[in-house]
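agent> Task received from the user: take the single chain below, predict its 3D structure, and emit structure tokens. No templates, no multimer pairing.
agent> Plan: (1) validate residues, (2) run structure prediction, (3) serialize to tokens, (4) report one or two observations.
agent> Step 1 OK, no nonstandard residues flagged.
tool_call: predict_structure(input=
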Amino acid sequence: MTIPGRQLDWTRVRPKARALLRFLAAHGGRPVHREVILSGLWPELPVRSGIRSLHVGVSTLRAFLEPGVRRGESTFLRRDGESYWLALPPAALCDVRSFEEAVAAWRRRVGTGQRSAEAAALRAALAQYAGDLLPEDGPAEWVVAERDRYRTSAAEAAATLAALELEAGHLATAVAAARRGLEIDGFRDDAWRVLAEAHQRAGDAAAAARTRSAYGRVLRTLGVSGPAWAA
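)
tool_result: status=success, residues=231
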């Protein structure tokens, strides 16, 4: 997070307050109900103690982000009833929000026949996905579900883009998209299938055979047999 004209020294902020900001940022500027925040960040505390910790965290962040701001006048951390959110200005760049908007744009075009628009939206989504969400939070329970959701969505976007590129005859970009999908999730059958097919159509039978063999090894680690195309 950057604020024009200011250098943010996060070492001055306690870890739990930093976690609160990351929690709200991970929701892309959407309001998050107090109960969701408490269950994610302070699950071990009684409700009253959790609410007190939440209020302290919010006050700490407001004072850090907007020194001297008066109560109720924060432009960054907002509250509406029992919900809080990170208020992003129109010009703000947020990879989570941009990723979700691009995925939503793709889903709106599915079935419309607008293949090039679908592909463009998927490329935009993948451009925003830099890897697992908030790796610095490790296996923290609150982030695992969100991390898995974004990973699954990104892998689907890559595999779908690969299929669209293959359909359009763009073999090199189909290979690249399929590989990106497998980097994100190495168990996606559709990405493996497109990768093998793209190599085959490009006249690289050896690469296609290696792809099928690699997928076979992946499946054997799961104790399952491969589909016919991977034989």
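agent> Step 4: summary for the user.
The longest strand covers residues 77-80.
agent> Done.
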